[in-house]
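Hey, I was hoping to borrow your eyes for a little while. For a while now I've been wondering how a particular protein folds. The fold is given in discrete form, as structure tokens running alongside the sequence. Could you read through the record and tell me how the tokens relate to the sequence? Take your time with it, there's no hurry, and the full record follows here:
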Amino acid sequence: MKQNASSISILSWAPPEWFCNSFPLEAPDQRVMTMERLVVLLQHLLDSTSEADYTPLQKVLHVAHILVTMQGQDGLWPAEFDLTTAAPLSDQRSNAPLALFQRLNTMLASSEFEHSLRYAQAKRRSL
């Protein structure tokens, strides 16, 4: 499933009964996602938002709100996770959602994701 940013193809959306419901899927049987790839897909959706169509932004906001709940006590997120349960699939951690949260705050002229951003920053300083 290694694809670069230019080969974005969202085939479907995770079913509502999954923890990661309505996350973008690149394959019909996909059950695993890397945080890096997810953020690439979400950034691509934000790129397609326009004044005429806010639907991509709404989809990204939905996923971003779930990502807030997945932030660990270390201020980071699982680098790879199970889409059905959000369970981490390795010990590796990721800070990929930070750029997404910053972009959303800027786009919306909001501080909606400021708590997650500050928490990650505070945890980095305490290391």
Notes: The chain has four helices and six strands. The helical segments are 35-47, 55-70, 97-108, 114-125.
